[in-house]
Protein 1
Amino acid sequence: DVKVTQSSRYLVKRTGEKVFLECVQDMDHENMFWYRQDPGLGLRLIYFSYDVKMKEKGDIPEGYSVSREKKERFSLILESASTNQTSMYLCASRHPGQGLSPLHFGNGTRLTVT
Amino acid sequence: GQQLNQSPQSMFIQEGEDVSMNCTSSSIFNTWLWYKQDPGEGPVLLIALYKAGELTSNGRLTAQFGITRKDSFLNISASIPSDVGIYFCAGQGGGTASKLTFGTGTRLQVTL
């Protein structure tokens, strides 16, 4: 079974702090994704990565950056956290070579910025 | 970025009732997917639809890919308490093949 692990379930940070959200997958998937989930807005794509050292902006990249130095790890970085970045963050991965293979999600990190 | 309109936003139903939810888009998609998110967990794929008009079942779940390719619905028959959660539709277009657009979600609560 694919396992996508997000390092923290809950985080509380202060406005202006630099925040790192870590995600690791154990199935050698090329594609990795970061979404944020907000009530009434569903899942919105922040950034994604097709492979190591590759990254592309999703629909709401402002205020975020990412790092993909190793295939199994995809980090989301909030350069200067703001209260409007309080949200649930979900990481996902998939293997593109398997046709329309599904996204496998982690259990999420609930971030609160005070 | 584009989002899919999903309705209803939330619903309370009694155990044993049937449930129906749908998703609409202004754009055409080549694939429609339905995910379920249990409390405290990430979404898990329930059903995938690949052709316009396709009707697919997975146990008590039935989903259809609309003929226009701009909509999809999900039905749950004879609901049970473990059906509680948030259901998301997702569409995948023909451009950036790996990129999904998710719906706004339907929160389902089942009472005994």
Protein 2
Amino acid sequence: DTGVSQDPRHKITKRGQNVTFRCDPISEHNRLYWYRQTLGQGPEFLTYFQNEAQLEKSRLLSDRFSAERPKGSFSTLEIQRTEQGDSAMYLCASSFPTSYEQYFGPGTRLTVT
Amino acid sequence: DQQVKQNSPSLSVQEGRISILNCDYTNSMFDYFLWYKKYPAEGPTFLISISSIKDKNEDGRFTVFLNKSAKHLSLHIVPSQPGDSAVYFCAASPWGYTNAGKSTFGDGTTLTVKP
């Protein structure tokens, strides 16, 4: 296993467009997390899944954001009607359900122009 | 309200010396603490952790100290090496398997180790 992968690594989009990111976790990991990181700040928790169930969403996750993990493997994060404030690094992480340590992917950098 | 604070945005030390990175937290519900290291263009990588029932955890050159009464933890790197140059994030989680992994992160400290 090569670790957590994310696609694309970079995305430039115009304001108002929809974007979708993909995360492939480490295959043995049941839990999958999405974080957002802006420049000079640490990652901020957005949502997490255990298998295919989305167990929690942060209040940071507005109605324009939706995440899925339909078969309990890969996950997608969609942002509808993007705004300039959505520009950030979107990080995915995975872990075993009883573990505090997370394994992060390299992130998807979103730029909204 | 930032619940995990790393008050030093940057730290520069000489190779071979000790690096001390500090972290303060405000939420009394936090019971498990982690340090992650991040290189440019990569995601954070887990480094070392400590639970609230301990006050020290050591792994090779890395030691984390926890002062629960002061709500303060620190990461010591001895001896520091140029390859340790990275951004270090402190993270905290409440206890319990439901909360495992839902970490609150500080804003990071950029460590530069000079040869």
